[in-house]
Amino acid sequence: MRSNSAADTASYRQPEQVKREKATFAGGCFWCMEHPFDQLPGVVSVTSGYTGGHKTNPTYEEVSAGGTGHAESVQILYDPSKISYEKLLAVYWHNIDPTVKDRQFCDSGHQYRSAIFYHTEEQRRTALKSREALQMNKPFQGQIVTEITPATEFYPAEEYHQHYYKKNPIRYRFYRSSCGRDNRLKELWGDLAGH
Asked: Which of 6, 7, 174, 175 is deepest in the core (most CB within 10 A)?
């Protein structure tokens, strides 16, 4: 009996690869930026790390000392068929204070700046449009100073920083509270405030 080669070939086809894209955001302490994205449908992974600087393979101590030019950041791998870049931007804005330069809440220095690091021209245009719309409709006073800049090499942070909110929930909640993050987000965004 002869086999049907077309049918055989079809049965051995590999499933199509799911298209995945990256989004990279800086919004102060990366511990506090993982959780808002981690829980979103369509987000595959969230990694804490460092980007936007000039030193190769920086350590946490080097970045937090402020000498590398890097920002504490999160890099998000997501499925654009399930969640849009616009939605990621909305979550990002509601989890930062976009009115301060080189600072987020109790953390100060260039390493704690707010920034959107775009990976494509489409991301750049979308981020600019999002910032312009926010500037026109923001529920707070003050100019938006968040940078929109090209993505550079992203260096994952040390393992103990990854998903800190899960590994150390009590310390994480204490940090958020003592840093004034939640109160300031509520003051800025009201019911839209992230957490």
From this structure: 175
Secondary structure of the chain: what % helix, strand, coil (to 5)?
Answer: 40, 20, 40
Element (H, E) at 156: strand 155-156
pLDDT in tens, 97-121: 999 999 999 999 999 999 999 999 9
Supply the pTM of this predicted model.
0.89
Nearest Cα to Cα of residue 157 among 47, 66, 52: 47
Whether 29 is a known active-site residue: answer yes
Q: What's the Cα-to-Cα distance from 29 to each of 16, 96, 105, 181, rounded to whole Å?
A: 37, 10, 9, 10
Question: Which residues touch 139 (CB under 8 Å, ≥6 apart)?
Answer: 188, 189, 190, 192
Q: The tokens of 176 are what?
A: 């958020």
Identify the CA nearest to 179 among candidates 12, 27, 9.
Answer: 27
Query: pLDDT tens digit string along 12-68?
Result: 555 557 789 999 999 999 999 999 999 999 999 999 999 999 999 999 999 999 999
